[in-house]
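Supplementary Note 2. Why include the ligand at all?

Several targets in our set were suspected to adopt different conformations when bound, so apo predictions alone were not considered sufficient. For every target with a known small-molecule partner we therefore ran a joint prediction. The input for cytidine-5'-monophosphate is given below.
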Amino acid sequence: MTADHIIVALDVDSAAEARALVARLGGQIGFYKVGMELYAAAGMDFVRELLGQGKRVFLDLKYYDIGETVKRAVRVAAPSGVEFLTVHGSSQVMRAAVEGRGDAATRLLAVTVLTSFDQQDLADMGYECAIAGLVALRVRKAMQAGMDGLVCSPLEAANVRALAGPNAILVTPGVRSSGAAQGDQKRVATPAEAVRNGADYVVMGRQIARAADPAAEAARVAQEIAEALASASCRQSG
Ligand code: C5P
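The joint prediction is reproduced in token form.
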């Protein structure tokens, strides 16, 4: 059985290592995130390899550049068949991405505020607003720009869902089961909390990839999510 709500981040530095992790996860995980590390090591060749195996791919390159460059980069990446592609949530960048995507089926996701940022990090960049205010602004701008969804902290997913509406795709990294190491992530929640707050997908890297048995860990997280969704639907129908 595939864990439909889990995207495993392939944060490794070679195609060989990524291949080995995908093989260990077997049929358990059908959706993978390729970020800048693996992309720098193995590029679109490895993305195409995953797609060729019938895997779904989230290409998380978080584009942020002048509009023309973003438009052209999206125009090249989108027809490959990647399902999700990220750009940062600034209006100029998002509008360019939507233009570059054209008729391709790729869904464009806007990064709201990185889950490794806290209030202090925002102040350091010169933002005086609260994280929640900046996230809300970027969600509204993303919807206006024609984006398909958002990447946000699971802690903000309920507010993001309320602002973005039922059709927006919500993807939440910064997810940790209770007791798992947090690493550099600051705005984290459990997989169960993430889906209860309205996330469609949780991105999980280290907790699954560095587990002694990644497939067993993925199965455990899938179970946690299934239980959260079942109890949420009981509450709705009760
Ligand atoms: O290992 P961990 O589960 O923290 O990995 C999270 C993944 O999600 C990383 O690949 C990171 O680049 C990505 N990500 C994130 N915060 C965002 C967007 C993406 O942590 N806002």
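The mean pLDDT is 94. The beta strands are 6-9, 31-35, 56-63, 84-88, 107-111, 149-151, 169-172, 201-204. Comparable summaries for the other entries are listed in the accompanying table.
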